[in-house]
Structure formats: C-alpha cells, structure tokens
Design brief:
Elements lengths: L2 H14 L6 H12 L5 H19 L1 H15 L6 H30 L3 H19 L13 H12 L8 H11 L4 H29 L4 H32 L2 H19 L2
Length: 268
C-alpha cells in the first residue's frame, strides 16, 4: 500500500472504532469506492490494535484496578465491585471469542461487501435509535449483572458482520439493559480490550508465519501508531458528546451512509 492509503485507513480506523458506526465497515469502503486494492484483514486488525492501546491508556487507572481486583479474587481475596466487573467483562467476551474462532474465515471471504455494509448500517441504526429513546436508562456499571453482561456479549458477536459496529452493537445492548449512555459506552470500551487483543495476537502470528518483510512490519507499526493517537482523542470527545446529544447524530449518519452505499451499489 502507498503511504497515503495507509495513513487514510489508519485515521479512518481511529475515528470510527469507538463510534457506533462500524470501523470494519469503513475500512472496507475505500477499496470499493476509490478502486484501491483491498488492504486485507491483517491490516484491519493491526490498526484495531492501535485503538486497543488508546483505550488501555485512556482508562489505564480503571484497567489496573480491574486487573488487580480480578487477580485478588483468583487467590481467595474478598470480592469487590471491581473484581465483579472484571468477571462480567470476561463473561461478555466469551460469545464473540467463540464466534470469531468459528466464523472468522467465512466472514473474511464473504462479508466484505458494500451491499451488506449498506444494509447493516441502516438496520442497526434503527436498533440504536430505539435503544437510545428508552426511558429509565440510568444504571451505572455497578448495577450491571450477569444477564445484562451476557446480552451485551451476544450482541458483540454481531460485530463479525461488517457494517454492524462492535461498539454500536454493545452500546445498543447496554442501553436496552437500562445502562446510562456513559455506562454503556464505558463498558463497550472495556469490552474491546480482550477481544481486540486476542484477534490482534492471532493475526500477528499469521503475519509472522507468512514470512512478512521488515517493510511490511514497519507499515503495520505506522498504522498502529496513527490509529492509536486518533482513537485516544476520539474516545475523549465521544464521551462528552453522547452526554449532551445522545446517539441520534450517529443514527442519522448510519442511515445516510447506508442509503449512499445502496445508491453506489445499484448505480453500477
């Protein structure tokens, strides 16, 4: 890939990963719209790892507390709200982890379609709108139970389908579970850590086994850095935005994007 394409895709990933608009779907679109060669899933996962570093750094204090409390619970320490939340994150990660192992190759082969992205963009925009309009969604993370965590984890499975949005699906499920907007977003961000880390490790191993050159590794590293920096600022401003405006701007964006993609597809 050329430098411009790498930079554009890394920035695109950083902007879209934690917004409920599907980063994976957006990463597929430039190849379809601009005639670029598809960068492939390895690059897509690598720039997701940049977003992983961003969320780890942004929530570093919270992540350390969760990890420490979880380790103490393993060694017989007293259960706390932090250790309980850590176990709920693990529980919610299991469905998507299993689905990724079973269907990852299938999605890579058949899921990178502009028509599919158009449909899922509009369909899940409708679900997000309904979830955001619910009255009484004011629970925080301390109120989260295993049933709600399982629901959010099952929703995260849908992120394998391009255009769905991992953050969008998990935030929608969180809102349906009566979490506040901020709590739904925060749990979605924390839930990204194990799933992106696992998928990133698998793709790094695949890339190594393919005998990638030094320039290939440099390309991925550059994408990781750019994506990470952009993702960090996106997290910061997104949390402020949803408190003021809710999710409606993202619902509108997804619908407009889906309609435009339908137009592009059927005009060919």
């Amino acid at each position: 890939m050329e430098f411009l394409q790498i930079t554009f895709l890394a920035i695109l990933q950083g902007v879209t990963e934690f917004l409920p608009i599907s980063s994976s779907g957006h990463l597929i679109l430039p190849a379809e719209l601009f005639g670029w060669e598809d960068q492939g899933l390895v690059f897509d996962v690598s720039v997701h790892v940049g977003s992983l570093f961003a969320v780890l750094y942004y929530f570093r204090g919270h992540v350390i507390e969760l990890g420490t409390a979880w380790l103490r619970s393993l060694t017989g320490g007293q259960a706390t709200s932090q250790s309980r939340l850590a176990w709920l994150i693990i529980l919610a990660t299991v469905p998507a982890g299993l689905a990724g192992l079973l269907f990852n190759d299938l999605v890579e082969q058949y899921g990178r379609s502009i028509l599919l992205i158009a449909f899922t963009s509009i369909f899940f925009a409708g679900l997000l709108y309904l979830a955001d309009r619910r009255i009484g969604s004011n629970r925080d993370l301390s109120d989260l139970n295993w049933k709600s965590a399982t629901l959010i984890g099952l929703a995260q499975m849908l992120a394998l389908i391009p255009g769905t949005s991992r953050s969008g699906a998990t935030m929608t499920a969180g809102l349906f579970a009566n979490l506040s907007r901020h709590a739904a977003a925060q749990f979605s961000f924390l839930l990204a850590i194990p799933i992106i880390a696992a998928s990133g490790l698998l793709k790094v191993l695949d890339f190594y086994q393919l005998g990638a050159s030094v320039s290939d590794w440099v390309t991925l590293l550059y994408g990781v850095i750019v994506s990470g920096v952009v993702s960090y600022f996106c997290i910061h401003y997104f949390l402020k935005l949803i408190e003021r405006l809710g999710f409606l701007p993202f619902v509108i964006y997804r619908i407009v994007l889906g309609l435009m993609l339908f137009g592009v597809y059927f005009s060919r």
